[in-house]
Amino acid sequence: MHVKKLLVQLLLIVAIAAVGKSWFESSLQQSYKDLKLGGAGLSIQLRSKLSQKLAVALLSGFRGVVADFVWIGGHQAWEDQVWYKLREAIELAVVLQPHSISFWDLGSWHMAWNASYAESVNTKYHNKAVREKIQKEWIQAGKQFLLDGIKNNPDTYELYFRLGWLIYQKENDPLGAVPWFEKAATYPEAPLYVGRMIGHMYEKAGKMQEAYGVWKRLWLVDHDQYPGQLWQKIAQMGGQAEEKLNIPLEQRVFPSVPKSVRPTHSQ
Q1: Does residue 75 lie in a domain region?
Q2: CATH number, domain containing residue 186
Q3: What does the DSSP assignment read for 11-54?
Q4: What's the Cα-to-Cα distance from 137 to each of 87, 108, 131, 245, rounded to whole Å?
Q5: Phi-psi region of 254 (alpha: psi -120 to 50; beta: other; left: phi over 0)
Q6: What is the extent of the structural domain holding 149?
Q7: Is the pTM of this model over 0.90?
């Protein structure tokens, strides 16, 4: 009777272990399916960068917690200005949480702004050309990072806007930024300043006719529908464009520009 009882207990333990093994394997397979960036799974190389405890937490379903710990490690690398470790942490964090907009946003900022500037003034590089080359590489890394972020999160305006801003600020290419600002402006949740950025970019590029088209398009919508819009600013920019383009008075759509804000010949 005692032996029979032990046998039943043994069979019960084996059954529980089998169920546990099946659940663990299923969980592991699902983790591999979920942990994707641009279609690439979590590689052995990336997994090796996780500590054993974090790897266990990951397989236990605490992916968000692991991503946060990885991101905190990246913040420490930023403070220490160890840029390659920062980049590793950023890239791993978005593999773990590919739909975290803040990870993509701040990650690109670290690369294209912080790392690029730090390397541009890094005295260990005695050759200015070398510093500029490394600076551009970090800017390109930040740009590519945003492009990857957009692939993973195509249905929100933020990363399109950030990419436009990077191209304008870091590549000094306002026309190159225009398509990204235009795309960002198509999203209903995009702030009103996103649409105005398109006009500013055309003006920065010396495309006054195109800028005027933007100001006019914004001005002719129902003002009551967008109470937060800077209508006075748009009127000022549009009126200045009409002055510069010598638009006939009868064809103008903006209120008269006060003399105090009219462009001078020197402008």
Answers
A1: yes
A2: 1.25.40.10
A3: HHHHHHHHHHHHHHHHHHHHHHHH-EETTEE--HHHHTTS-HHH
A4: 13, 13, 10, 40
A5: beta
A6: 63-261
A7: no
39 in the Ramachandran plot: left (φ > 0), alpha (ψ -120 to 50) or beta?
Answer: left
CA dihedral 187, 189, 190, 195 (to 10 degrees): 70
Q: Which residue has the tokens 């600002």?
A: 181
Region of residue 190 (phi > 0: left; psi between -120 and 50: alpha; otherwise: beta): beta
The answer as to whether 201 is a domain residue is yes
Give the model confidence (pLDDT) of 93-151 as tens digits.
888 888 889 989 989 999 999 999 999 998 888 899 999 999 999 999 999 999 999 99
- The amino acid at residue 169 is Q
Q: How many domains does the chain have?
A: 1
- Measuring CA to CA, how many Å separate 117 from each of 106, 133, 171? 15, 12, 13
- Residue 47 counted as domain residue: no
